[in-house]
Design goal:
Endonuclease Iii, domain 2; Endonuclease III, domain 1; elongated
């Protein structure tokens, strides 16, 4: 019988291996980031002549600026400022007009009582806490200060609900002291314009007191508050009508 010789099966063609990835991937070009905004503290400081010019312009435009909180005496001013925390002046005035007609002294406020006081100020934020503070500060004024608003910062700050800003407002408006009350508007203007940059209200306060000439200090905080409230607005500053737009250091001003 003839021997059958089997032919070897044909070898499968080798599948070429995938090319190995390059050991070092090509680096993507780094994204170009926007240049960092120039820090206000790093900008050119205001000169004494420029500061004088700013407040001279404010004075010419509004020689006798007035605070917008309505009051009839130092006590009602103190109460109004305490009530104005996290509230608008207009909202406080609406609530206090009737209140001050019947309670314009510490004793009358105590006689009114906390519960009835709440009814007068219930349209103001945090009115329950504020009513408690007003009654407590009225009692302290009678027991510690003879029923009179103290004429020192320490004395006012010792009263319930009264802090440094409250003391500065009362000392300035009631007693003519050269103090600088820093609210949200003054804080913004001090930082945005570069007049007195600071991370805290106290830093801005001390910075402004250092640079503002004495002849302007009586009304300076009112000018700055009004400027921040009506011109140098938080979201959209009205640079086109700003009295000091040529001197302002804000990098994003629109004029």
């Amino acid at each position: 019988m003839a021997k059958i010789t089997r032919k070897p099966a044909p070898r499968k063609a080798a599948v070429p291996k995938k090319k190995a990835k390059a050991a070092v991937a090509k680096r993507k070009p780094a994204k170009t980031s926007a240049p960092a905004k120039k820090s206000l503290k790093a900008q050119k400081p205001w000169t004494p002549a420029e500061v004088h010019e700013v407040f001279d312009r404010f004075r010419k435009a509004n020689p006798e600026p007035k605070g917008e909180l309505e009051h009839v005496n130092p006590f009602t001013l103190l109460v109004a400022v305490v009530l104005s925390a996290q509230a608008t002046d207009a909202g406080v005035n609406k609530a206090t007009r009737a209140l001050f007609e019947i309670a314009d002294t510490p004793q009358k406020m105590l006689d009114l009582g906390e519960e009835r006081l709440r009814d007068y100020i219930k349209t103001i934020g945090l009115y329950r806490t504020k009513a408690k503070n007003v009654i407590a500060l009225s009692a302290k004024l009678l027991s510690d200060f003879g029923g009179e608003v103290p004429r020192t910062r320490a004395g006012i700050e010792s009263l319930p609900g009264a802090g440094r800003k409250t003391a500065n407002v009362v000392l300035n408006m009631a007693f003519g002291e050269h103090t600088m009350a820093v609210d949200t508007h003054v804080f913004r203007v001090g930082n945005r314009t570069g007049l007195a940059p600071g991370k805290t209200p106290l830093e801005v306060e001390l910075g402004l007191e250092k640079i503002i000439p004495a002849e302007f200090m009586l009304h300076a905080h009112h000018w700055l508050i009004l400027h921040g409230r009506y011109t140098c607005l938080a979201r959209k500053p009205r640079c086109e009508v700003c009295l000091i737009n040529d001197l302002c250091r804000w990098p994003e001003k629109t004029v």
